Every structure is written in structure tokens, then in C-alpha cells.
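Bench notes, afternoon.
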Amino acid sequence: MAEFESTLHPVAISHVMVNFAAGLGVDRETCLLGTGITDADLQDGEALITRGQEMRLVENLILALPDEPALGFRLGLEYNLATFGTWGFALRTSRTLREAVARAMRYLPLSTAYCHIFEFAEADRFSIGMDPTRIPDHLRQFLLERDMATAVHLLKELSLSSVDILALTFRELPDGHAPQIERLCGIAPVAGHERNSIQVHAETADQPLPTYDPHLVRMLDDQCRQRLERLQTSTLAGQVRQKLHGSAGLLASLDEIAHALGLSQRSLRRKLDQEGTSFRTLVEDERRELALQLLTGSDMRLDEVAIHLGYTDTASFTRAFRRWMGCSPGAYRQKQSS
């Protein structure tokens, strides 16, 4: 749990869990045992807690209800757009489902997600992938299912239930979870798949959302950005990201960033590890986000994009992009412009 201790998270997410547990006969004291979360925290809409605190709450919930199959999925369906405040409203004002997903990923720490979430193309489908590998083993399945169910519910809410989810895939599912998930959401999950994913028709992802509001988009984007900055600058990872956006840019070495922060390389590595990340991961994340922006918002050639991102050649950039998005940079750009 220590790897998530320094990451802040809106307390509203935990409030939903406590109310959910109460509906299943688990009292508030049991949920909050050892978390350091108080009743006052739960009532404060602006309060922030660490993910370590939230994970302790998740552990308490799992221990209190050990025989409930797909408990995480059941919990995930309790979250709606309003739960997440500004982040949820920003998704609601997006022009299309594809745009809403991109905005969701851009400001993901404002949500409940623990998985690494990414978009990828597969045949004629728009797919949202979820990678839970950074989550501690004993919480991984619960939080993966919670993230998947939350995404399913939000997709339905954004489209006013008109979206047709074609597939809900998992790399693996424990015994008894698949039938329970189907009962909960009406979709039969497919286990043994290459990725954990939610898939819809590609054309569905580009249809205008009924709640699109062009006048609110920029304002809510700004509010999300400001909230995210407040969360991120309180962590060392956030400070590293700021330095990577500075004059040294994505070409900065570990030594250069450590020096800029007044740390030794060893201390920087250790502190980032305590926050559940690494310098390499942060650079990769920033490269991916900038790559997506350049491919969709500029006419820059692929070799120029590669150099701008700090790659020695286009082939290295292409391999990295395939790993991130499941397709080549050229294919991604063409898909976005079509």
C-alpha cells in the first residue's frame, strides 16, 4: 500500500464506498477502521485523502464481505457523473464519447480509477483498455472490476443509455464473477482475452452527445486543470512532471531532474518508488500525452514528432506508440482525422 500513500484522491469516492457498505450491512466504523478518515472528512466535499487511506477502506470492505462475487463491479455501478463533481460535469459537456474519454484520461486522478486507462482501435471498434498491473495483488481484481463497472455506467449515462456496449473483456475472472457481472449490467463478460476492455462501435464514439455544451467545455476544462495541478504538485511525481514540461523537456536525464529538485538520483528513485511510479514511467506518460496532442493537433511529420519526444529515430517512437495505443502513429492520426 505504501506505493500509493502520497497520491491524493477526492474523499467523495470513499463516501460512496461507505454508503455502499452500509447497504450490505457493514457499519461505518468497520469501513473506516485504520484509515484515518473521519466523519468530518466524509462530509467535506473538498476534502482530499491519500490513496493509501482509500486502499485501507477497500481492504476493510473486502474482509467484511469475503463471499460476495464481483463485489468491486457491484460497487463501481454506484458511481455516476455527479459523484466526481467538476470532472464528471466536464465529461458531460464533451462533444462526443471519444472526446469525453480523452478528457477523462487527461484528468484521471480526479476520478476513482486506479487502473492505467488507454484508448485503442480494434477493427471497427472504439475500445477502452484497463491495465491494473500497478495495483497491489490482493486488491487488483476488486479495483479492476470497480474501474470497469464505473466506466460502463458513465458511458451509459453520457449517452443517455443509447450506447451499445459490444464487449466487456477480461484477461481473467475468478469463478462466479462472470454470471454475477452479467446479472449486474446485462453484458456477458468474456474472460481469457488479451486485454481488459470495454468495446463499442467506432461510429458510436463519434456521434454527438445529447448533453454537449460548447459554452461550458473550456470553463470546465480549466477547472479540471486547476484541480489536477493542486493534486499533482503535492507529490514528487507532480514536481517531476512540471520539470519535464520546463526548459529541459522530455530530453532531461534522471540526474538533471534530480539536481533541479535538490535531490540525489538515489533519493529521487526511492521517493518516486514510494509514490508507486518511476522516472521512466513519468517520461513515458508525458511522451504518450504529447504524442497524442501532436498527432491530432498538428501536421508535424512522424520523424519530427519522434525527435520532439526525445526518440533517436522514428522506428523507436513507432514501437513505443504501438505499445501505448495498439496501433501505429500514422494509423492513429488517420483515424482521428477521418
